[in-house]
């Protein structure tokens, strides 16, 4: 275990990346727990206010991200400065992306349907960083044997092919499948070979004169959304909290 840790984490300089990922995930989890306690009126926590202004946690997140980012650029990946900067950067990124939806909409949508985008972005970011961390690219690792080079070359080839399948899935309007397909093998392949979603660039390009294909694509998209909408919402509610119900609209009100 010690030999693997040195050759695959310490020697290639991946320790800061590992610490950044760990602090990113931990900060997001702690932040969500605290905000849900505040929302439920439990515990000693409360919103931070200054002069009647609610200070969202994206503000200290930006500060930590800037400090950690510049510190990482100025530090050595193998030194203590790089380690500290990575932790600060991960904490800042966790705070910022936890309120990604607020930045996107320029509105306090944290506990609304639109706020679910923050959870999605955090999960995807953690998964992509995990892919970089677990990658078998032999950069920075010295004295690789021929077998190790062959094994890692095979993995790199598979990653490239998987990435190409992800591009096809993205062109077919399957953004989530494409993103997770970069990380999980065969997911992108499934998205690439199945019918495109209606309105996607692929459907407009190849289904324009194929009414049967358009009809099949629309029916499959409807069945897929109907089947997976509820489980997807349940997972997002479990991670990020259930959004507030939308206020009922009065007749004639827009």
From TrEMBL:
Keywords: Membrane, Transmembrane, Transmembrane helix
The organism of origin for this protein: Streptomyces canarius
UniProt-recorded name of the protein: Integral membrane protein
Annotated transmembrane regions: 15-34, 55-74, 80-106, 118-141, 153-170, 177-196
